[in-house]
Amino acid sequence: MLKIENLHAETAGKAILKGITLTINPGEIHAIMGPNGAGKSTLAYTLGGRPGYEVTDGTATFDGQDLLALEPHERAAAGLFLGFQYPVEIPGVSNLQFLRTALNAQRTARGEKELSGGEFIKLARGEADALGLDPDMLKRPVNVGFSGGEKKRNEMVQMGIIAPKLAILDETDSGLDIDALKAVGHGINTIMRKPDKAVLLITHYQRLLDYVKPDYVHVLAAGRIVRSGGPELAIELEREGYAETIGEVAA
């Protein structure tokens, strides 16, 4: 589904990614862990097409397409979803308005029929109920006045409505309490743990992986993947820390 080969990228003239190679197949969940400044968020932003992140070498293909040649909205229409560490607030735009516009834009780009207002509201309320978000919050401006946990639940609802093929979640566990962490884990498992979908989950800590069991764990340090393994690698990192596990690379 996603194939990254020798990817190099920079932002503000500073090289951050220095040769990432990674393959994610349908049905797989991959976790990327690493110390601050390792390049984890840069990888997410580069794959998502965020302005200011320039690819200087390497390739990335998504479902056989050249991902890097697509505009951000084209990547979204192709089935890529990018979840942010700090979801932004959008005053004056309701969740329902935002999500219906986004979903129908993607459906149109894929040659599918747009959902009517009634069809969309039924879908949105169903996803909100499944993920424990008060349906009344769908009427509120996007993330405005939401707590950290509510923002992340809201993002899970967005993901459920959009139904992407690949979700790239950038430290989605940041700042969450136990209940919100469980809710996010439930959302990822419910929406994305399917044979035709995949997840790239970026996190500092093992705690989210108690709820979302990854197939593979990768350690990113100094812009490179320096070690890969199974779920037990995350437990080792939690116990020993990054310096002990990756030595001088993380120093």
Brief description of this entry?
Residues 2-247 form the ABC transporter domain. The chain has 251 residues and is of the alpha/beta class. The protein has helices spanning 40-48, 72-78, 95-109, 117-130, 148-162, 178-192, 231-246, and strands spanning 2-11, 14-24, 29-33, 53-62, 65-66, 80-83, 90-94, 141-142, 166-170, 198-202, 216-221, 224-229.
Q: What is the residue-averaged pLDDT?
A: 89
Report the principal-axis shape. globular
How do the strands of the widest beta sheet line up side by side?
6-9-10-3-11-12
Strand content is 25-35%
Class inferred from helices and paired strands? alpha/beta
> What is the rounded distance between the termini?
33 Å
Radius of gyration, in Å, reads 18 Å
- According to DSSP, the number of beta strands is 12
Name the CATH homologous superfamily of the domain at 2-88 and 164-250: P-loop containing nucleotide triphosphate hydrolases
CATH architecture of the domain at 2-88 and 164-250: 3-Layer(aba) Sandwich
Count of DSSP-assigned helices: 7
Helix content: 25-40%
CATH first level of the domain at 2-88 and 164-250:
Alpha Beta
Low-confidence blocks of residues: none
Give me the CATH fold name of the domain at 2-88 and 164-250: Rossmann fold
Q: Sheet bearing the most strands, described?
A: 6 strands, mixed
Secondary-structure element sequence? EEEHEEHEEHHEHEHEEEH
